[in-house]
């Protein structure tokens, strides 16, 4: 089974409270604030394409990249339902992106960077982003903070009860390695019975100094660090932090 096969089928259901329109508006305001010359946007770890569609609704040409075939199939369906949008979806890992040309901006939202579990993987992703950004292009991404892993996720479980599925989402954070393990147990209705399927994945917590250092090493100059969906400086209990960097 490929990564996110089960989660991919139910991702939109589990994320139904996420306001992608507001997130797209925010990202575009960040790009405008930092002087982007509007062009094509690369949506890294685009998942099922909800954010890509919202960016396309604003008239932006979007290239979405994700490593999950299951999620990209749903992204393609959303793109087909919005034919006036200019969207292209590619099955690629973040550290292996290979585009047909350059982009004016790249975004990676909802802790996509945290899914990269080693320094090498993060550095490689930053390098590939820098390679395909136009000179002066912007990279905007967010990360789950160490605070969130330690104080919000660790040891907690979340239950989702819908007609289609019953899902238990468990979390365990190892402070020494910085790795948070997620175990999702799905119970799917099938011919009057429930079928259990488990899916596991992990995220890693990264500190501000190391992220900024790796950006600089990739030729991306850090410009700003914001609390999620705002232009305020992050507080000590911030759960998600947004970074902005420019290709030098």
UniProtKB/TrEMBL annotation:
Note the InterPro entries from the entry.
Methyltransf_25, SAM-dependent_MTases_sf
Q: Which species does the entry assign this protein to?
A: Ethanoligenens harbinense (strain DSM 18485 / JCM 12961 / CGMCC 1.5033 / YUAN-3)
Q: Name one Pfam family in it.
A: Methyltransf_25
Q: What keywords tag this UniProt record?
A: Methyltransferase, Transferase
Residues crossing the lipid bilayer are: none
Q: Which GO terms describe its molecular function?
A: methyltransferase activity
Keyword Metal-binding set for record: no
Q: Which residues form the Methyltransferase domain?
A: 41-137
Q: Biological process GO annotation list?
A: methylation
Source domain of life is Bacteria
Q: What is this protein called?
A: Methyltransferase type 11
């Amino acid at each position: 089974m490929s990564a996110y096969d089960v989660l991919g089928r139910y991702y939109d259901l589990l994320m139904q409270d996420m306001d992608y329109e507001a997130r797209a508006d925010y990202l575009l305001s960040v790009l405008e604030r930092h002087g982007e010359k509007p062009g094509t946007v690369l949506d890294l770890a685009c998942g099922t394409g909800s954010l890509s569609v919202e960016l396309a609704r604003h008239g932006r040409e979007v290239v979405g990249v994700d490593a999950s075939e299951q999620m990209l199939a749903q992204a393609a369906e959303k793109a087909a339902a919005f034919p006036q949008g200019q969207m292209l979806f590619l099955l690629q890992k973040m550290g292996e992106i290979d585009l047909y040309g350059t982009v004016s901006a790249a975004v990676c939202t909802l802790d996509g960077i945290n899914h990269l579990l080693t320094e090498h993987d993060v550095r490689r992703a930053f390098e590939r982003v820098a390679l395909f950004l136009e000179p002066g292009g912007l990279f905007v991404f967010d990360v789950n903070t160490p605070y969130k892993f330690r104080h919000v996720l660790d040891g907690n479980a979340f239950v989702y009860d819908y007609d289609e599925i019953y899902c238990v989402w468990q979390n365990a954070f190892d402070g020494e390695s910085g790795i948070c393990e997620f175990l999702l147990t799905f119970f799917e209705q099938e011919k009057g019975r429930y079928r259990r399927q488990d899916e596991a994945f992990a995220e890693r917590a990264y500190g501000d100094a190391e992220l900024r250092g790796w950006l600089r090493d990739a030729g991306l100059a850090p410009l700003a660090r914001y609390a999620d969906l705002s232009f305020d400086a992050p507080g000590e209990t911030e759960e998600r932090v947004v970074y902005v960097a420019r290709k030098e």
